Amino acid sequence: AQSVAQPEDQVNVAEGNPLTVKCTYSVSGNPYLFWYVQYPNRGLQFLLKYITGDNLVKGSYGFEAEFNKSQTSFHLKKPSALVSDSALYFCAVRPRNTGGFKTIFGAGTRLFVKA
Amino acid sequence: DADVTQTPRNRITKTGKRIMLECSQTKGHDRMYWYRQDPGLGLRLIYYSFDVKDINKGEISDGYSVSRQAQAKFSLSLESAIPNQTALYFCATSDHKQGDSYNEQFFGPGTRLTVL
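^ inputs. structure came back:
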């Protein structure tokens, strides 16, 4: 079965330190990869995506993600965390050649940045 | 995202009642989706629509129905609500008019539904 795993329910990091939110997937082919962020009482907001090419993708608010094909991972990173980055982060994977309607979401990782 | 709106934002109802959640978008996107979010489960697809005349079931469509009244409007109905339909519901849109299947989705603010 196709799946997306975010192995950490919560990640705690001090402000100014680098952060990593992990994502691995089990989806055949070369899927498209996404990260979304959800702030309280808001819908999901798109951060970045990987389509093809360079394994390091840069996105909004200083976030970036590294694609690793051999490990089927797409970890979200930021060099210096801000308190305002505290939110719920979702990794999402979309298989290719399925008409583009199917997106598999991970369960989410809550990021807590302490001042 | 203000371009995708949902009404109501919160709703408390009783078992057996019929309710409708509405979604409108001003992004001009062709595709619209309804998801359900439960803690620890991420988002699960209920229904999706490629355009006004093309509506499809998602992975958890039982107990739900939808209507695409116009390109900009996509409503979700619970014909007879039950407590395990208590969840956060999101509408989303995406643009695939150019045939791309890698475009991101834009989400509404969500509707928190409680079924007593």
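The first strand of chain B starts at residue 4 and ends at 7. The CA atoms of residues 46 and 58 of chain B lie 5 Å apart.
thumbs up if we can close this ticket
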